[in-house]
């Protein structure tokens, strides 16, 4: 047997998928850093999307924020206030990018199938088949409902039933046009929606926009197995990732689907350095910036359920007991106190210790090896990176980690197709008109 034939018979190297989420106004983003950009300036969106495309990423994800977060009845001044509507921003990005997928996180609680299906189908045409929809299933009626239904929201008991019917209805609309470009009347009559008429946007270049579902719960896994093309999960240990991966893939057969028809992607953060030790130092400094004194007090107030504005964040934890009306407050406060006492930590140091850490920390070669291990060991099909800075937080990863992944054969060296479905290796949807 020749060496050439031996190489041909070797199994193909499993390659990972990569995406990036535009950082939000949560605790991961360091808006105080002088290098931080804007959450409303189009230049920030364009820079991050262009960097991701230069790095050959699968898609760029932009979250929805239909109402600013509040604290004590006031807009939370630690957040970057203001967030443009995602499909609008992605439509503008479609004109200045060529290959990268454009994914909008949009909720099913306060939108309607026809108007959202129409916007996403339009984005798919404008982008040449690169549109995706991250289905947000939370109803969040106590907070968001006042913006949409005069103070009322949806029943929180079963958001997945509405979400499932919402996705099914959107697909009925997208499929109401034949592949040959002929519109046909549609009619859907269900528990949550009753719509009929003629959809006015032809079938898109990739058949339908890619559907993404985020979450790790049993309901979220089942919803993804039944209706999604991609599931976004939380980052855990390698073993936890393997268990989740096997569980999600194992649910697909019940819906007549194959394992390759649903991609499992973990949402992760990263910190780089010239050496592993330097990366650890960088990570510690970033955590200090992420948990400012004000954010530490905010985190403690959410646990204690009390006004702690006069408390010293660099002093000890509050001696007063939490408000028992706050769910799990006593147990969480007891855990915090145990950590603070064991390590001699202040309130702020305790918040840094007990809240989330960066997922992958190290020199570029170390991070590349860690990411590759998760994929080859069956813990994920890929990752959605969340940089801690806007808009340049992905630059170093694209320049220093991506080439190492390519050298390992773990990531593409060029885009093989034009649509997002092609990037993800997803089959074209079968027309069911």
Automatic annotation (TrEMBL):
<keyword id="KW-0560">Oxidoreductase</keyword>
<dbReference type="InterPro" id="IPR016215">
    <property type="entry name" value="NTA_MOA"/>
</dbReference>
<dbReference type="InterPro" id="IPR011251">
    <property type="entry name" value="Luciferase-like_dom"/>
</dbReference>
<feature type="domain" description="Luciferase-like">
    <location>
        <begin position="31"/>
        <end position="379"/>
    </location>
</feature>
<comment type="similarity">
    <text>Belongs to the NtaA/SnaA/DszA monooxygenase family.</text>
</comment>
<dbReference type="GO" id="GO:0004497">
    <property type="term" value="F:monooxygenase activity"/>
</dbReference>
<dbReference type="InterPro" id="IPR036661">
    <property type="entry name" value="Luciferase-like_sf"/>
</dbReference>
<keyword id="KW-0288">FMN</keyword>
<keyword id="KW-0285">Flavoprotein</keyword>
<dbReference type="InterPro" id="IPR051260">
    <property type="entry name" value="Diverse_substr_monoxygenases"/>
</dbReference>
<dbReference type="GO" id="GO:0016705">
    <property type="term" value="F:oxidoreductase activity, acting on paired donors, with incorporation or reduction of molecular oxygen"/>
</dbReference>
<feature type="binding site">
    <location>
        <position position="160"/>
    </location>
    <ligand>
        <name>FMN</name>
    </ligand>
</feature>
<dbReference type="Pfam" id="PF00296">
    <property type="entry name" value="Bac_luciferase"/>
</dbReference>
<protein>
    <submittedName>
        <fullName>LLM class flavin-dependent oxidoreductase</fullName>
    </submittedName>
</protein>
<keyword id="KW-0503">Monooxygenase</keyword>
<feature type="binding site">
    <location>
        <position position="217"/>
    </location>
    <ligand>
        <name>FMN</name>
    </ligand>
</feature>
């Amino acid at each position: 047997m020749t060496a050439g034939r031996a190489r041909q018979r070797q199994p193909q190297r499993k390659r990972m998928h990569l995406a990036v989420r535009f950082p939000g106004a949560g605790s991961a983003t360091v808006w105080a850093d002088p290098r931080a950009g804007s959450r409303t300036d189009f230049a920030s969106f364009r820079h991050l999307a262009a960097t991701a495309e230069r790095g050959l990423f699968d898609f760029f994800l932009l979250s929805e924020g239909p109402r600013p977060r509040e604290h004590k009845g006031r807009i939370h001044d630690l957040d970057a206030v203001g967030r443009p509507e995602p499909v609008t921003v992605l439509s503008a990005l479609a004109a200045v990018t060529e290959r990268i997928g454009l994914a909008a996180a949009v909720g099913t609680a306060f939108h309607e199938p026809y108007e959202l299906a129409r916007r996403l189908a339009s984005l798919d045409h404008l982008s040449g088949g690169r549109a995706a929809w991250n289905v947000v299933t939370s109803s969040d009626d106590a907070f968001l409902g006042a913006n949409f239904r005069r103070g009322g929201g949806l029943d929180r008991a079963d958001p997945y039933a509405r979400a499932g019917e919402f996705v099914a209805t959107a697909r009925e609309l997208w499929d109401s046009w034949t592949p040959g470009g002929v519109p046909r009347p549609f009619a859907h009559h269900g528990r949550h929606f009753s719509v009929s008429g003629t959809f006015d946007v032809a079938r898109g270049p990739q058949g339908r926009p890619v559907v993404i579902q985020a979450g790790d719960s049993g309901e979220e896994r089942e919803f993804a197995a039944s209706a999604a093309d991609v599931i976004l999960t939380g980052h855990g240990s390698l073993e936890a990732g393997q268990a989740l991966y096997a569980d999600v893939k194992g649910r697909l057969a019940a819906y007549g689907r194959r394992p390759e028809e649903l991609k499992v992607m973990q949402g992760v953060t990263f910190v780089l350095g010239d050496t592993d030790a330097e990366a650890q130092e960088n990570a510690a400094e970033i955590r200090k910036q992420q948990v400012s004194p004000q954010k530490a007090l905010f985190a403690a107030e959410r646990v204690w359920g009390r006004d702690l504005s006069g408390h010293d964040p660099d002093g000890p934890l509050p001696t007063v007991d939490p408000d028992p009306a706050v769910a799990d407050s006593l147990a969480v406060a007891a855990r915090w106190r145990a950590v603070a006492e064991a390590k001699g930590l202040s309130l702020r140091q305790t918040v840094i210790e007990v809240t989330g850490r960066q997922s992958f920390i190290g020199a570029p070669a170390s991070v590349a090896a860690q990411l590759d291990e998760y994929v080859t060991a069956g813990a994920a099909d890929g990752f959605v990176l969340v940089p801690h800075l806007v808009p340049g937080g992905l630059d170093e990863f694209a320049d220093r980690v991506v080439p190492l992944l390519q050298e390992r054969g773990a990531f593409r060296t060029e885009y093989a197709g034009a649509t997002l479905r092609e990037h993800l290796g997803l089959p074209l949807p079968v027309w069911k008109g």
